[in-house]
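Q&A log
Question type: sequence-to-structure
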Amino acid sequence: MRVRASKQAIRKAKEALSRKGWNDTKRLEIAKSCNQKLHSQQRSNFFNGKVVEDSTAYKIGFLLDLTWEDGDLEPEVGKKKQDKGSDIDELVQEVRSLYHDKIEYDCGQMQLLNRQAPIDDLYADVYVLEDIAKLRSLNITERIQGFDPSADNPNSFYLGQVRGERVSGLKVVTDGCKVMCLGAPGSGKTSYLYYVAIQCNKGELQANRVPIFIRLIDFTDTIKNQPELSLLNYIENLFHTEGVEQPQAIETIITQGRALILLDGLDEVPKDFSKLVLSRIREFCKYRKNSIIITCRTNALDYNFSDLKFTQVIVADFEQPQIEIFANKWFVTVAKSNKEAGEARATQFLEKLRSREYNRIRDLAVTPILLNLICLVFDNDTGDFPENRAKLYQRGINILLKEWDAQKWDI
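Response status: OK
Response body:
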Protein backbone atom coordinates (compact mmCIF):
# COMPACT_ATOMS: atom_id res chain seq x y z
CA MET A 1 0.00 0.00 0.00
CA ARG A 2 1.19 3.54 -0.74
CA VAL A 3 1.09 6.13 2.04
CA ARG A 4 2.38 9.58 2.91
CA ALA A 5 3.80 10.70 6.24
CA SER A 6 1.63 13.14 8.18
CA LYS A 7 3.11 16.32 9.63
CA GLN A 8 3.27 14.71 13.06
CA ALA A 9 5.10 11.66 11.65
CA ILE A 10 7.65 13.87 9.88
CA ARG A 11 8.13 15.84 13.11
CA LYS A 12 8.68 12.61 15.09
CA ALA A 13 11.21 11.39 12.53
CA LYS A 14 13.15 14.67 12.50
CA GLU A 15 13.23 14.77 16.30
CA ALA A 16 14.55 11.20 16.35
CA LEU A 17 17.25 12.15 13.84
CA SER A 18 18.21 15.13 15.98
CA ARG A 19 18.42 13.00 19.13
CA LYS A 20 20.65 10.50 17.37
CA GLY A 21 22.74 13.19 15.69
CA TRP A 22 22.40 11.56 12.28
CA ASN A 23 22.83 13.22 8.92
CA ASP A 24 22.08 11.66 5.51
CA THR A 25 25.46 9.90 5.37
CA LYS A 26 24.97 8.38 8.80
CA ARG A 27 21.49 7.19 7.86
CA LEU A 28 22.91 5.36 4.84
CA GLU A 29 25.58 3.71 6.98
CA ILE A 30 23.04 2.54 9.55
CA ALA A 31 20.66 1.27 6.86
CA LYS A 32 23.47 -0.68 5.20
CA SER A 33 24.61 -2.23 8.48
CA CYS A 34 21.04 -3.42 9.11
CA ASN A 35 20.70 -4.79 5.55
CA GLN A 36 17.89 -2.27 5.01
CA LYS A 37 17.95 -1.02 1.43
CA LEU A 38 16.92 2.65 1.51
CA HIS A 39 17.42 4.96 -1.47
CA SER A 40 17.90 8.71 -1.12
CA GLN A 41 14.76 9.39 -3.18
CA GLN A 42 12.68 7.24 -0.83
CA ARG A 43 14.00 9.16 2.20
CA SER A 44 13.42 12.50 0.48
CA ASN A 45 9.84 11.62 -0.46
CA PHE A 46 9.05 10.52 3.09
CA PHE A 47 10.40 13.67 4.77
CA ASN A 48 8.71 15.90 2.18
CA GLY A 49 5.32 14.32 2.77
CA LYS A 50 5.18 12.65 -0.64
CA VAL A 51 3.70 9.24 -1.37
CA VAL A 52 5.93 6.22 -0.58
CA GLU A 53 5.39 2.49 -0.21
CA ASP A 54 4.28 1.62 3.33
CA SER A 55 7.33 -0.67 3.63
CA THR A 56 9.56 2.42 3.20
CA ALA A 57 7.76 4.20 6.04
CA TYR A 58 8.09 1.19 8.32
CA LYS A 59 11.74 0.79 7.37
CA ILE A 60 12.43 4.42 8.36
CA GLY A 61 10.54 3.83 11.60
CA PHE A 62 12.68 0.75 12.28
CA LEU A 63 15.92 2.67 11.73
CA LEU A 64 14.78 5.51 14.01
CA ASP A 65 13.32 3.22 16.72
CA LEU A 66 9.86 4.65 16.07
CA THR A 67 6.51 2.86 16.10
CA TRP A 68 3.97 4.58 13.88
CA GLU A 69 0.63 5.27 15.52
CA ASP A 70 -2.82 5.89 14.07
CA GLY A 71 -2.75 9.05 12.00
CA ASP A 72 1.01 9.00 11.39
CA LEU A 73 0.69 7.40 7.96
CA GLU A 74 -2.07 8.53 5.62
CA PRO A 75 -3.27 6.29 2.75
CA GLU A 76 -2.67 7.64 -0.73
CA VAL A 77 -5.46 9.91 -1.96
CA GLY A 78 -8.16 7.79 -3.54
CA LYS A 79 -7.29 4.79 -1.39
CA LYS A 80 -8.93 3.78 1.86
CA LYS A 81 -7.40 1.78 4.65
CA GLN A 82 -9.73 -1.11 4.02
CA ASP A 83 -8.26 -1.37 0.51
CA LYS A 84 -5.01 -2.78 1.92
CA GLY A 85 -6.07 -6.38 1.39
CA SER A 86 -7.11 -5.86 -2.22
CA ASP A 87 -3.94 -3.84 -2.92
CA ILE A 88 -1.62 -6.65 -1.86
CA ASP A 89 -3.76 -9.25 -3.64
CA GLU A 90 -3.49 -7.28 -6.88
CA LEU A 91 0.27 -6.86 -6.43
CA VAL A 92 0.75 -10.58 -5.78
CA GLN A 93 -1.14 -11.54 -8.94
CA GLU A 94 0.74 -8.97 -11.00
CA VAL A 95 4.14 -10.20 -9.79
CA ARG A 96 3.10 -13.86 -10.21
CA SER A 97 2.29 -13.06 -13.83
CA LEU A 98 5.62 -11.33 -14.45
CA TYR A 99 7.62 -14.13 -12.80
CA HIS A 100 5.59 -17.02 -14.24
CA ASP A 101 7.93 -17.79 -17.14
CA LYS A 102 11.01 -17.73 -14.89
CA ILE A 103 9.53 -20.39 -12.60
CA GLU A 104 8.48 -22.46 -15.60
CA TYR A 105 12.01 -22.23 -17.02
CA ASP A 106 13.77 -23.05 -13.74
CA CYS A 107 11.43 -25.75 -12.44
CA GLY A 108 9.33 -27.05 -15.34
CA GLN A 109 11.72 -29.75 -16.53
CA MET A 110 12.75 -32.88 -14.65
CA GLN A 111 16.20 -34.27 -15.44
CA LEU A 112 16.39 -37.91 -16.44
CA LEU A 113 19.82 -39.47 -16.61
CA ASN A 114 20.08 -38.85 -20.33
CA ARG A 115 17.32 -36.35 -21.16
CA GLN A 116 14.83 -33.85 -19.78
CA ALA A 117 11.06 -34.13 -19.63
CA PRO A 118 8.24 -31.87 -18.42
CA ILE A 119 7.87 -32.46 -14.69
CA ASP A 120 4.14 -33.18 -14.98
CA ASP A 121 4.95 -36.00 -17.44
CA LEU A 122 7.29 -37.80 -15.04
CA TYR A 123 6.71 -36.75 -11.45
CA ALA A 124 5.50 -39.32 -8.93
CA ASP A 125 4.22 -37.90 -5.65
CA VAL A 126 6.91 -37.57 -3.00
CA TYR A 127 5.96 -38.70 0.48
CA VAL A 128 7.73 -37.55 3.62
CA LEU A 129 8.13 -38.87 7.13
CA GLU A 130 7.09 -36.41 9.82
CA ASP A 131 7.98 -36.19 13.50
CA ILE A 132 11.66 -37.09 13.22
CA ALA A 133 13.03 -34.94 16.05
CA LYS A 134 14.55 -38.11 17.50
CA LEU A 135 16.96 -38.29 14.56
CA ARG A 136 19.48 -35.80 15.94
CA SER A 137 19.70 -37.56 19.29
CA LEU A 138 20.71 -40.95 17.86
CA ASN A 139 24.24 -42.14 18.52
CA ILE A 140 26.26 -44.39 16.20
CA THR A 141 25.14 -47.58 17.96
CA GLU A 142 21.47 -46.65 17.63
CA ARG A 143 21.81 -45.71 13.97
CA ILE A 144 23.51 -48.95 13.01
CA GLN A 145 20.84 -51.16 14.59
CA GLY A 146 19.12 -53.18 11.90
CA PHE A 147 21.44 -51.86 9.17
CA ASP A 148 22.77 -54.51 6.75
CA PRO A 149 25.70 -53.05 4.74
CA SER A 150 25.49 -55.87 2.20
CA ALA A 151 21.83 -55.31 1.38
CA ASP A 152 20.64 -51.94 2.62
CA ASN A 153 20.92 -48.56 0.97
CA PRO A 154 24.00 -46.91 2.58
CA ASN A 155 22.02 -43.70 3.05
CA SER A 156 19.58 -45.46 5.37
CA PHE A 157 22.37 -45.60 7.94
CA TYR A 158 21.62 -41.98 8.80
CA LEU A 159 17.99 -42.83 9.53
CA GLY A 160 18.58 -45.88 11.66
CA GLN A 161 15.19 -47.15 12.79
CA VAL A 162 13.58 -43.70 12.84
CA ARG A 163 10.09 -43.84 11.43
CA GLY A 164 7.33 -41.29 11.21
CA GLU A 165 3.91 -40.76 9.73
CA ARG A 166 4.04 -41.01 5.95
CA VAL A 167 2.24 -38.06 4.32
CA SER A 168 2.14 -36.46 0.88
CA GLY A 169 4.82 -33.83 0.41
CA LEU A 170 2.18 -31.35 -0.71
CA LYS A 171 0.33 -31.61 2.60
CA VAL A 172 3.20 -30.03 4.53
CA VAL A 173 3.04 -26.93 2.28
CA THR A 174 0.67 -24.86 4.38
CA ASP A 175 0.34 -21.10 4.89
CA GLY A 176 3.37 -19.84 6.77
CA CYS A 177 4.96 -23.30 6.95
CA LYS A 178 8.65 -23.64 7.85
CA VAL A 179 9.98 -26.98 6.62
CA MET A 180 13.46 -28.50 6.54
CA CYS A 181 13.21 -31.35 4.02
CA LEU A 182 15.99 -33.91 4.44
CA GLY A 183 16.79 -36.74 2.08
CA ALA A 184 19.51 -38.95 0.66
CA PRO A 185 21.19 -38.06 -2.66
CA GLY A 186 18.80 -38.89 -5.51
CA SER A 187 15.78 -39.21 -3.22
CA GLY A 188 13.85 -36.51 -5.09
CA LYS A 189 14.34 -33.40 -2.93
CA THR A 190 14.96 -31.01 -5.83
CA SER A 191 12.20 -32.54 -7.95
CA TYR A 192 9.87 -32.08 -4.98
CA LEU A 193 10.67 -28.35 -4.84
CA TYR A 194 10.25 -28.11 -8.62
CA TYR A 195 6.80 -29.67 -8.38
CA VAL A 196 5.75 -27.42 -5.49
CA ALA A 197 6.91 -24.36 -7.47
CA ILE A 198 5.06 -25.43 -10.62
CA GLN A 199 1.86 -26.24 -8.72
CA CYS A 200 1.99 -22.80 -7.12
CA ASN A 201 2.77 -21.24 -10.50
CA LYS A 202 -0.35 -22.86 -11.97
CA GLY A 203 -2.50 -21.65 -9.08
CA GLU A 204 -3.17 -25.14 -7.76
CA LEU A 205 -1.16 -24.68 -4.55
CA GLN A 206 -0.89 -21.49 -2.48
CA ALA A 207 -2.26 -19.42 -5.36
CA ASN A 208 -2.22 -16.32 -3.14
CA ARG A 209 1.58 -16.42 -2.89
CA VAL A 210 4.51 -15.73 -5.20
CA PRO A 211 6.71 -18.82 -5.72
CA ILE A 212 10.44 -18.08 -5.44
CA PHE A 213 12.91 -20.89 -6.19
CA ILE A 214 16.57 -20.37 -5.27
CA ARG A 215 19.53 -22.70 -5.62
CA LEU A 216 21.58 -21.90 -2.55
CA ILE A 217 24.80 -22.57 -4.43
CA ASP A 218 23.85 -19.71 -6.79
CA PHE A 219 23.12 -17.43 -3.84
CA THR A 220 26.51 -18.39 -2.39
CA ASP A 221 28.30 -17.52 -5.63
CA THR A 222 26.75 -14.05 -5.47
CA ILE A 223 27.52 -13.26 -1.84
CA LYS A 224 31.12 -14.37 -2.25
CA ASN A 225 31.63 -11.01 -3.94
CA GLN A 226 28.87 -9.15 -2.06
CA PRO A 227 29.04 -10.46 1.51
CA GLU A 228 26.76 -7.68 2.76
CA LEU A 229 23.93 -8.73 0.41
CA SER A 230 20.81 -9.93 2.20
CA LEU A 231 18.61 -12.73 0.88
CA LEU A 232 15.83 -10.18 0.42
CA ASN A 233 18.07 -7.97 -1.75
CA TYR A 234 19.14 -11.03 -3.76
CA ILE A 235 15.49 -11.89 -4.42
CA GLU A 236 14.77 -8.29 -5.43
CA ASN A 237 17.60 -8.50 -7.97
CA LEU A 238 16.17 -11.74 -9.41
CA PHE A 239 12.79 -10.14 -9.94
CA HIS A 240 14.23 -6.94 -11.37
CA THR A 241 15.94 -9.06 -14.04
CA GLU A 242 12.52 -10.50 -14.95
CA GLY A 243 10.95 -7.08 -15.40
CA VAL A 244 9.47 -6.52 -11.94
CA GLU A 245 10.48 -2.88 -11.73
CA GLN A 246 7.89 -1.44 -9.37
CA PRO A 247 9.75 0.17 -6.47
CA GLN A 248 9.79 -2.21 -3.51
CA ALA A 249 7.15 -4.55 -4.93
CA ILE A 250 9.02 -7.65 -3.78
CA GLU A 251 9.84 -6.20 -0.39
CA THR A 252 6.16 -5.41 0.10
CA ILE A 253 5.16 -8.96 -0.84
CA ILE A 254 7.70 -10.49 1.51
CA THR A 255 7.04 -8.15 4.44
CA GLN A 256 3.34 -8.96 4.01
CA GLY A 257 4.16 -12.70 4.08
CA ARG A 258 2.91 -13.47 0.58
CA ALA A 259 5.84 -15.50 -0.76
CA LEU A 260 6.52 -19.24 -1.05
CA ILE A 261 10.31 -19.46 -0.64
CA LEU A 262 11.98 -22.66 -1.90
CA LEU A 263 15.69 -22.93 -1.00
CA ASP A 264 17.40 -25.91 -2.60
CA GLY A 265 20.61 -27.63 -1.57
CA LEU A 266 21.78 -26.26 1.77
CA ASP A 267 24.34 -29.05 1.94
CA GLU A 268 25.88 -27.89 -1.37
CA VAL A 269 27.04 -24.60 0.14
CA PRO A 270 30.86 -24.69 0.54
CA LYS A 271 31.94 -24.97 4.15
CA ASP A 272 33.80 -21.64 4.04
CA PHE A 273 30.53 -19.84 3.28
CA SER A 274 28.02 -21.96 5.21
CA LYS A 275 28.07 -19.66 8.25
CA LEU A 276 27.34 -16.60 6.09
CA VAL A 277 24.55 -18.33 4.15
CA LEU A 278 22.96 -19.65 7.34
CA SER A 279 23.10 -16.15 8.80
CA ARG A 280 21.33 -14.71 5.75
CA ILE A 281 18.62 -17.39 5.92
CA ARG A 282 18.09 -16.76 9.62
CA GLU A 283 17.82 -13.01 9.00
CA PHE A 284 15.22 -13.65 6.31
CA CYS A 285 13.13 -15.79 8.64
CA LYS A 286 12.09 -12.66 10.53
CA TYR A 287 9.50 -12.32 7.73
CA ARG A 288 7.70 -15.13 9.49
CA LYS A 289 4.41 -15.10 7.55
CA ASN A 290 6.06 -16.44 4.39
CA SER A 291 6.13 -20.16 3.62
CA ILE A 292 9.69 -21.49 3.51
CA ILE A 293 10.98 -24.93 2.49
CA ILE A 294 14.70 -25.78 2.60
CA THR A 295 16.19 -29.01 1.24
CA CYS A 296 19.33 -30.63 2.59
CA ARG A 297 20.98 -34.05 2.53
CA THR A 298 20.14 -36.30 5.44
CA ASN A 299 23.75 -36.68 6.52
CA ALA A 300 24.27 -32.91 6.84
CA LEU A 301 22.87 -32.84 10.35
CA ASP A 302 24.70 -29.71 11.53
CA TYR A 303 22.00 -27.41 10.18
CA ASN A 304 19.41 -26.91 12.89
CA PHE A 305 16.56 -24.42 12.53
CA SER A 306 14.38 -25.78 15.33
CA ASP A 307 14.67 -22.48 17.22
CA LEU A 308 12.97 -20.84 14.23
CA LYS A 309 10.02 -23.27 14.45
CA PHE A 310 11.08 -25.33 11.42
CA THR A 311 9.55 -28.77 11.11
CA GLN A 312 11.93 -31.49 9.94
CA VAL A 313 10.72 -34.10 7.47
CA ILE A 314 12.57 -36.81 5.56
CA VAL A 315 11.79 -37.87 2.00
CA ALA A 316 10.41 -41.39 2.25
CA ASP A 317 11.41 -44.29 0.02
CA PHE A 318 9.14 -45.06 -2.92
CA GLU A 319 6.52 -47.68 -2.21
CA GLN A 320 5.05 -49.96 -4.85
CA PRO A 321 2.34 -47.53 -6.09
CA GLN A 322 4.95 -44.80 -6.63
CA ILE A 323 7.29 -47.23 -8.40
CA GLU A 324 4.48 -48.21 -10.76
CA ILE A 325 3.47 -44.59 -11.45
CA PHE A 326 7.06 -43.53 -12.11
CA ALA A 327 7.77 -46.52 -14.37
CA ASN A 328 4.59 -45.97 -16.41
CA LYS A 329 5.37 -42.29 -16.85
CA TRP A 330 9.02 -43.03 -17.69
CA PHE A 331 8.29 -45.50 -20.50
CA VAL A 332 5.41 -43.43 -21.91
CA THR A 333 7.71 -40.38 -21.97
CA VAL A 334 10.47 -42.31 -23.73
CA ALA A 335 7.97 -43.76 -26.22
CA LYS A 336 6.92 -40.18 -27.09
CA SER A 337 3.86 -40.32 -29.35
CA ASN A 338 3.28 -44.07 -28.93
CA LYS A 339 1.57 -44.17 -25.53
CA GLU A 340 0.30 -47.75 -25.89
CA ALA A 341 3.79 -49.03 -26.62
CA GLY A 342 5.12 -47.17 -23.57
CA GLU A 343 2.46 -48.62 -21.30
CA ALA A 344 3.12 -52.14 -22.61
CA ARG A 345 6.85 -51.69 -22.01
CA ALA A 346 6.17 -50.48 -18.45
CA THR A 347 4.05 -53.58 -17.76
CA GLN A 348 6.91 -55.84 -18.91
CA PHE A 349 9.36 -53.89 -16.77
CA LEU A 350 7.25 -54.12 -13.61
CA GLU A 351 6.61 -57.85 -14.06
CA LYS A 352 10.33 -58.49 -14.35
CA LEU A 353 11.14 -56.24 -11.39
CA ARG A 354 8.71 -58.24 -9.22
CA SER A 355 10.48 -61.53 -10.03
CA ARG A 356 12.21 -63.15 -7.04
CA GLU A 357 15.63 -63.31 -8.71
CA TYR A 358 15.66 -59.52 -8.97
CA ASN A 359 15.02 -58.81 -5.27
CA ARG A 360 18.32 -56.94 -4.86
CA ILE A 361 17.60 -54.82 -7.94
CA ARG A 362 14.04 -54.15 -6.76
CA ASP A 363 15.40 -52.85 -3.45
CA LEU A 364 17.19 -50.11 -5.40
CA ALA A 365 13.97 -48.90 -7.00
CA VAL A 366 12.92 -47.02 -3.87
CA THR A 367 14.68 -43.81 -4.96
CA PRO A 368 13.92 -41.89 -8.18
CA ILE A 369 17.51 -41.73 -9.41
CA LEU A 370 18.10 -45.49 -9.12
CA LEU A 371 14.66 -46.40 -10.48
CA ASN A 372 15.52 -44.12 -13.39
CA LEU A 373 18.75 -46.08 -13.92
CA ILE A 374 16.95 -49.44 -13.86
CA CYS A 375 14.41 -48.20 -16.42
CA LEU A 376 17.23 -46.94 -18.65
CA VAL A 377 19.08 -50.26 -18.60
CA PHE A 378 15.88 -52.24 -19.21
CA ASP A 379 14.94 -50.02 -22.16
CA ASN A 380 18.37 -50.26 -23.77
CA ASP A 381 18.87 -53.97 -23.13
CA THR A 382 15.70 -55.03 -24.95
CA GLY A 383 13.71 -55.90 -21.85
CA ASP A 384 16.36 -57.13 -19.45
CA PHE A 385 18.64 -55.98 -16.66
CA PRO A 386 21.34 -57.76 -14.62
CA GLU A 387 20.61 -59.52 -11.34
CA ASN A 388 23.85 -58.12 -9.93
CA ARG A 389 23.91 -54.50 -8.72
CA ALA A 390 27.50 -53.85 -9.78
CA LYS A 391 26.74 -55.04 -13.30
CA LEU A 392 23.61 -52.85 -13.37
CA TYR A 393 25.65 -49.78 -12.46
CA GLN A 394 28.31 -50.62 -15.04
CA ARG A 395 25.72 -51.18 -17.74
CA GLY A 396 24.07 -47.85 -16.95
CA ILE A 397 27.39 -46.01 -17.13
CA ASN A 398 28.22 -47.63 -20.48
CA ILE A 399 24.84 -46.58 -21.93
CA LEU A 400 25.30 -42.99 -20.81
CA LEU A 401 28.88 -42.80 -22.07
CA LYS A 402 27.80 -44.14 -25.44
CA GLU A 403 25.00 -41.57 -25.72
CA TRP A 404 27.22 -38.68 -24.61
CA ASP A 405 29.87 -39.71 -27.12
CA ALA A 406 27.28 -39.78 -29.91
CA GLN A 407 26.01 -36.32 -28.91
CA LYS A 408 29.57 -34.97 -28.92
CA TRP A 409 30.03 -35.95 -32.56
CA ASP A 410 26.62 -34.53 -33.51
CA ILE A 411 27.64 -31.02 -32.40
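Response note: The chain has three domains: 2-71, 93-315, 320-410.
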